[in-house]
Design a protein that fits this description.
Elements lengths: L2 H5 L2 H14 L10 H20 L8 E7 L5 E6 L2 H19 L15 H13 L4 E6 L3 H4 L2 H8 L6 H11 L3 E3 L2 E3 L12 H18 L3 E5 L2 E6 L2 H18 L10 E4 L4 E2 L2 E6 L2 E6 L1 H14 L8 H18 L6 H23 L2 H10 L4 H8 L5 H5 L2 H6 L2 H6 L5 H7 L2
Parallel strand pairs: 1-4
Antiparallel strand pairs: 1-2, 3-7, 3-8, 4-5, 6-7, 9-10, 10-11
Helix pairs in contact: 2-4, 9-10, 13-19, 14-15
Length: about 425
């Protein structure tokens, strides 16, 4: 059976359909949603297949969606039509095993059985072995700058099926629909398509093979590249080598301003950092990730968000559990406990605002066990919310046990659940 036949076999297409439906996602330029795909296929697949098999199928351009980047600015997400998602998923399911077996072990992005946590764990081990200088390579708009000819040459190393190669190329050149205008794409592989993760790994495999063959200690997750060496001088040489391979051979662009050499306790990887103790190298949450966390918590604990406390706690718990599920590798329980003090103070100021009137505040403080004179003094106070929330009186009225009773999940406790 040819690769083309494997891609469009009934079994593979059904598996791809289930995956696309499970992933849901927004509609493409044609407005068709994932919940409508199965019905559309029943009516129109015969025509689509005839065009595919004849080499006459033309993918729709992806719908441009701009999303904010964590460090500011925006990046483009390309949303393919659901039919194109189905076809790309079917292609990825067949090609991934073919290419994956040749990838180096330290490539962790978008691969079955690989994860960001594994990349961080390996990085910590390498640092413990004495490789305490880190080359952090930043690729400038990687997904927007992939050269189609260079990429297709690498796909063709293992894919000889001409029809399949033409179809993959058609997806690269499908274009982008922005504000109702189709924009041609001469380079790049838009993030958001099922094929994009595999193609990014194929593109960067030359770099992986070169550095793996030279015996370098490194990890790569998509376009996040970290190389670990023993000295700053070696790091400078390695950065030059990396630029030579990425720009010279692969025609990518290295962001010189963001590609840096750092000591291991300053370097970051996928939102994590590292620190040294008498017992070895430990993992922490990177400062930028903590900053983003606090910004999100401020939004979810804003006094201007007029929702019930029960609903707010439900939303917060979902966020805390998800965030800590990712950052569970961090070995900083004290840091999470400090974070919880700030978190609970923000919750106390919300409760204080909910009580609104001075008489209500006095009554609620009394009901929570505060002495009558103190309840009156603080209930009638005109001090600002944040000042009141940090007072001993409100801490006694709304202690940790109170929030546990409300069902609030705090960071330190969530971290403990994952250990």
């Amino acid at each position: 059976m040819s690769l083309w036949e494997k891609v469009f076999s009934r079994q593979n297409l059904l598996a791809a359909l289930k995956r696309v439906e499970a992933n849901r996602g927004a509609a493409g330029v044609d407005g068709l949603g994932t919940h409508e795909l199965r019905g559309w296929i029943r009516e129109h697949w015969a025509d689509a297949w005839e065009r595919l098999d004849a080499g006459a199928y033309r993918p729709l351009p992806v719908r441009e969606v701009m999303i904010p980047k964590p460090d500011g600015g925006e990046r483009m997400l390309g949303v393919p039509s659901v039919l194109d998602r189905l076809i790309q998923q079917a292609i990825a399911q067949v090609l991934s095993p073919i290419f994956d077996e040749g990838f180096v072990p330290v490539s962790y992005g978008f691969r079955s059985g690989k994860s960001a946590h594994q990349a961080v764990s390996v990085a910590r081990t390498v640092i413990e072995q004495g490789y305490r200088w880190v080359v952090e390579v930043d690729l400038d708009a990687f997904f927007d700058r992939v050269n189609h000819d260079v990429l297709m040459a690498r796909v063709a190393r293992k894919v000889e099926d001409k029809k399949l190669l033409r179809l993959i190329r058609a997806y690269l050149e499908a274009g982008i629909m922005s504000a109702g205008v189709r924009r041609a794409t001469s380079e790049g592989t838009p993030q958001g398509s099922p094929l994009s993760p595999l193609l990014s790994n194929i593109m960067l495999d030359d770099f992986d093979q070169e550095f793996w063959g030279r015996g370098h200690r490194f990890v790569r997750y998509a376009d996040d590249i970290r190389v670990f060496v023993r000295s700053k001088r070696a790091a400078e040489r390695v950065l030059e080598q990396a630029v030579k391979v990425l720009e010279g051979r692969l025609r990518l662009r290295v962001n010189r301003g963001k590609s840096v050499i750092n000591p291991a306790n300053v370097a970051t990887l996928l939102g994590f950092g590292f620190y040294f103790t008498a017992r070895g190298v430990k993992v922490r949450v990177a400062a930028k990730a903590l900053k983003r966390l606090k910004a999100r918590v401020r939004v979810l604990t804003s006094r201007r968000w007029s929702v019930s406390m029960a609903y707010r706690i439900t939303v917060l718990n979902r966020f805390v559990r998800g965030w800590m599920g990712y950052f569970r590798l961090a070995e900083t329980p004290r840091k999470f406990a400090d974070l919880d003090e700030w978190f609970r103070r923000r919750m106390r100021q919300i409760r204080w605002k909910e009580w609104k009137r001075p008489r209500t505040r006095v009554r609620m403080l009394r009901s929570l066990g505060v002495r009558a004179d103190l309840a009156y003094q603080w209930g009638m106070s005109s001090r600002a919310y944040w000042r009141i929330a940090g007072s001993v009186v409100l801490q006694r009225a709304l202690p940790n046990s109170y929030w546990e009773g409300q069902g609030l999940l705090v960071f330190r406790r969530a971290w403990g659940l994952f250990q």
